[in-house]
Amino acid sequence: MQIDVISDTVCPWCYIGKRRLGRALAARPELDVSVRWRPYQLDPTIPPGGVDRKEYLLAKFGPGERPKAMAAAIKEAGSEEGIDFAFDKIMKSPNTLNSHRLIRWAASAGVQDRVVDALFRRYFTQGEDIGDIEVLIDVARECWMDTDLVRELMTGDADADLVRREDNLARRIGVEGVPAYIIADKYLLLGAQDPEVILRAIDKALEKVAEDGA
């Protein structure tokens, strides 16, 4: 069974959702599941060089306590999943197109899940700029990808249109926020749901697969 996870690399709930999905699958080791990561850009209008994070959040949410309250809720949820969000270390809100290109290439190298995890960790716990090509190449190196090939691809626009096309497809099927999970092409689950909810969705998808095959 395949689970397509639609996410963005600067979405903290996607990081939390990744951990929760991992716990769900660990609870059901008998399931034969392949996880594939799909792109979604929460804000594709951010310029390639990124923008100052404080200014970006101020423009998006306005002044007041709302951003602090949101960050506190995320940090609390993250701590339950073993994630130590360090929002104070993040200086820049990047354009995530290139990070999604790297994730796409990582699938061919068989290290997609590892690359996704590295991108989340570097951005949310180390404050690295994952819009920076050198950072992305270092992620590729960490995950045993061919860094010469990655650098060559990054200097051009290889697969950029394919990433945008997948993003648009997600929106057309009703995804307006991430994470979202497409389970066995039968069931769409929205949000960073608890493991129990994910497992119920998997069971419903399996029932649908069985019905369609009957």
Q: Mind sketching the topology for me?
A:
Layout: E1 2-7, H1 12-27, E2 34-39, E3 51-52, H2 53-61, H3 66-80, E4 92-93, H4 97-109, H5 112-124, H6 133-142, H7 147-154, H8 160-172, E5 180-183, E6 187-190, H9 195-213
Parallel strand pairs: 1-2
Antiparallel strand pairs: 1-5, 3-4, 5-6
Helix pairs in contact: 1-9, 4-5, 6-7
Key traits:
two-stranded antiparallel ribbon; alpha+beta; 9 helices; Glutaredoxin
Report what the structure shows.
The protein has 214 residues and is of the alpha+beta class. The protein has a single domain (2-213), classed as Glutaredoxin, CATH 3.40.30. The chain is 54% helix and 11% strand. It contains nine helices and six strands. The strands form two sheets. A four-stranded mixed β-sheet has the order 2-1-5-6. A two-stranded antiparallel sheet has the order 3-4. A hairpin with a 3-residue loop joins β5 and β6. α1 packs across α9 (195-213), α4 (97-109) runs antiparallel to α5 (112-124) and α6 (133-142) runs antiparallel to α7. The longest helix is centred in the last third of the chain and has 19 residues, at 195-213. The mean pLDDT is 97.
